[in-house]
Specification:
Largest sheet: 6 strands, antiparallel, barrel
Oligomer: single chain
Number of domains: 1
């Protein structure tokens, strides 16, 4: 288990302090013309840097308010792209991004939060 102390770290520098290398696989969603089924197609993987926190990690969720029923959250700088349905691999586990929220202060964006669910 990892213990994380957020008391002296602002969100602006959290990604630098807690940044990890994460493999991102973009996923394209299409719909089958006959059945109407959703088809997810993996693209080429690349590495991104972000702060990655899993539900089972030992940190105070109540203070930071990040985990909204997801298995993990990833924080990336606003110039890093993550999208819904992307696959993120970290520490031998694979997650699918379920929701993406851009965090702003007025018109200035600071970082992006991806809420993830474990798929393997």
């Amino acid at each position: 288990m990892v213990s994380v102390n957020f008391s002296n770290v602002g969100f602006e520098s959290m990604i630098d302090v807690f940044g990890k290398t994460i493999s991102r696989t973009p996923v394209t969603k299409t719909t089958d013309n006959v059945t109407g089924d959703e088809i997810l197609t993996d693209g080429s993987s690349s590495n991104i840097t972000g702060a990655f926190f899993r539900k089972e990690d030992s940190w105070v969720q109540d203070k930071v308010g990040l985990l909204r029923g997801a298995d993990a959250v990833v924080l990336v700088k606003d110039d890093v792209t993550i999208n819904r349905d992307d696959k993120l691999a970290y520490d031998g586990e694979t997650y699918r991004v379920n929701d993406v929220v851009l965090r702003r202060l007025g018109n200035t964006s600071f970082y992006t939060v991806g809420f993830c669910f474990k798929i393997s």
